[in-house]
Amino acid sequence: MAKQQGPEFVRYFPPILKVLAEMGGVGGPAEVRDRVVTELAIPQGERDQLLRSGNSRVDNRVDWARFYLAKAGLIDKSERGVWRLTAAGYEASDRVITHAAAVALYQQVQSQFSSQRATQAARSMVAEPELPPPSDQAGSDELGD
Questions:
Q1: Across all residues in the chain, what is the average pLDDT?
Q2: What domains appear along the chain, each with residue ranges and CATH number?
Q3: Less Cβ around it within 10 Å: N or C end of the chain?
Q4: pLDDT interval class at 114 (50, 70, 90)
């Protein structure tokens, strides 16, 4: 079987949306993660894999997926510790999201980041004009009187 395109975490896009819809559109991170793991029937060996930080690799990937779904406007990220579907997220949860569509969504969000970073870099490169130092002659006219 050939390796699929895109980052590993895009496989979590569809089940996160589905699980949140089943939960009434809102859930806590731990409960959503647990339900996604059950939905995908992730084997215990994969769930036990840890990153160098000591955090679960699966949890990390689910969190990255949530981050991108939020940036895409499918999950509301305004309340800390609460994952909530937006109207667009509900609509997306009703559709079949292929791996190719998940990768395309990831790439769309990435291009938005690139665009924003380029704009910020361009703004930082435009220096504000320096003002000349104040005149040593208090009260004198501008033309050197």
A1: 87
A2: 8-122 (1.10.10)
A3: N
A4: confident
Q: Is the pTM of this model over 0.85?
A: no
**27 DSSP β-pair partners:** 83
Look up residue 130 and give its two tokens. Answer: 């320096």
pLDDT digits (tens, 9 = 90+) for 57-90: 999 999 999 999 999 999 999 999 999 999 999 9
**DSSP of the chain:** -PPPSS-GGGGGHHHHHHHHHHTTSEE-HHHHHHHHHHHHT--HHHHT-B-TTSSBHHHHHHHHHHHHHHHTTSEE-SSTT-EEE-HHHHHHHTS---HHHHHHHHHHHHHHHHHHHHHHHHHHHSPPPPPPPPPSSTT--TT--
